[in-house]
Design brief:
- The chain is α+β, with helices and mostly antiparallel strands and 407 residues long.
- The chain has two domains: 204 residues, 2-Layer Sandwich (Cytochrome Bc1 Complex, Chain A, domain 1); 178 residues, Cytochrome Bc1 Complex, Chain A, domain 1 (2-Layer Sandwich), CATH 3.30.830.10.
- It has 15 helices and eleven strands.
- The strands form two sheets. It has a six-stranded mixed β-sheet, with helices on both faces.
- β9 and β10 form a beta hairpin.
- α9 packs across α12, α10 runs antiparallel to α11 and α12 packs antiparallel against α14.
- The protein is globular and about 60 Å long.
Length: 407
């Protein structure tokens, strides 16, 4: 696979990983904007804006947009996170330029008032739906508790109050500041013609004006607070623990991810043997999330309310033992093989590879091949993980619980 790169005068970056033997191609826009770039007054606007792009342009209605994707047989979607908004599609190689051209048009949406008013009800329904999902609610609230005033604690969905008060003019202002070409990456992977993609972008995107889109970056270790939210309508206790991890810019992030897998993978991890296998918790999982300038380990636990004290005692014992003895070579080897399998299997398809390709550039402005990722994972040793344990001390965490217990 060959990596290609070009940057337009207005700052739009175009990257591609060309595989002439692939049977498909994937293309997407990675916009470096999300919940952390919002103020409380416009909380939720990034996610709302993601919905609005599918409402069309001055030349295309929402019906025509969906019909165009369907006609090309594209598997398309979008997602918004705390830090990024991504629009992507996988398609047969012969339709790649058509899909890319469609995405380029949608990056300059009309943001019509009528569409804005209708979609507001959709967003409010989505907020209500997620409020009924305890796992989402406890993690959303825990992130806010952990990050405090740091912008990574902002909610992606926003609140009923912020979304209800949001105006179309506020969204247009946010769009003009964040959807600038110098804040976007057009990425493509699979079987396609990179020169043709660049020519298309030059013809249709060169007139987009650059804007200052700086983002405040600072590491944040957390508030380490504890909070309980009682909900007598729930039958289970939902607990989220957050502790510091490493940023996407830190080369040790692969070691941090392996540590998260050793502790909280859904099979064979310390959480599994200590909590899930003996039926003390229905779910006991940890994941490492590396972000722009900072990072966090998330642990999610779901258990019988009466077993909560025992579950938390076991968690503390797991962390204490980890900090005392580190990890074994056998644990590291198992986690490494799991991660290597996940990385390589995901990247066998252009769509899976597209996400890694785009995010590597968004965060670090560099290209990392699959082999480079594999080599980085293989290079992690037990001493690397011991150093992370010593520096980050996962036994010190922010905790939020949600359930029927009063305490």
């Amino acid at each position: 696979m060959n990596f290609e790169y070009q940057k337009l005068d207005n700052g739009l970056t175009i990257i591609g990983e060309v595989d002439p033997l692939a049977q498909s191609a994937a293309v997407g826009f990675f916009v470096r904007t999300g919940a952390r770039d919002e103020t409380p007054q416009i909380s939720g606007v990034s996610h709302y804006l993601e919905h609005m792009l599918f409402k069309g342009t001055d030349a295309l209605s929402a019906l025509e947009v969906n019909a165009a994707f369907d006609r090309l047989g594209a598997k398309f979607n979008a997602f918004t996170s705390e830090e990024n908004t991504v629009y992507y599609a996988a398609v047969l190689p012969e339709y790649l330029m058509d899909v890319a051209g469609l995405w380029i048009q949608l990056m300059r949406p009309s943001l019509r008032n009528d569409d804005f008013d209708i979609e507001k009800n959709v967003i409010l329904e989505e907020i209500a739906m997620y409020k009924d999902l305890p796992q989402f609610e406890v993690m959303d609230q825990a992130r806010a508790l952990h990050f405090g005033t740091h912008p990574c604690g902002n909610s992606v969905l926003g609140t009923n109050e912020s979304v209800s008060a949001l105006t179309a003019s506020q969204m247009r202002s946010y769009f003009s500041k964040r959807y600038a070409p110098n804040n976007m990456v057009l990425a493509c992977s699979g079987n396609f013609d990179f020169k043709a993609l660049c020519q298309l972008a030059q013809e249709q995107c060169a007139a987009w004006g650059a804007v200052d889109t700086t983002r405040e970056l600072e590491d944040f270790r957390g508030t380490f607070r504890t909070k309980h939210l009682q909900n007598e309508n729930l039958a289970r206790q939902h607990i989220c623990l957050l502790s510091p991890a490493l940023s996407m810019q830190d080369p040790r992030r692969f070691a941090a991810s392996l540590l998260g897998m050793i502790l909280g993978d859904d099979s064979g991890s310390r959480y599994y043997w200590g909590l899930t296998e003996p039926a003390l918790a229905e779910i006991a999982a940890m994941q490492c999330e590396s972000m722009d300038g900072t990072g966090v380990f998330y642990s999610y636990l779901c258990c019988d309310p009466d077993k909560t004290p025992k579950v938390l005692d076991i968690i503390r014992n797991i962390f204490a033992e980890l900090e005392k003895t580190g990890v074994s070579e056998a644990e590291l080897e198992t986690a490494r093989n799991k991660m290597l399998s996940a990385v390589t299997i995901k990247c066998e398809q252009p769509m899976g590879r597209l996400v890694s390709l785009g995010f590597n550039w968004i965060y670090n402005c560099n290209y990392q091949s699959v082999q480079q990722n594999v080599d980085a994972i293989k290079a992690v040793n037990a001493a690397d993980i011991s150093d992370i344990i010593y520096r980050l001390k996962p036994s010190k965490f922010t905790m939020l619980s949600l359930g029927p217990n009063s305490d």
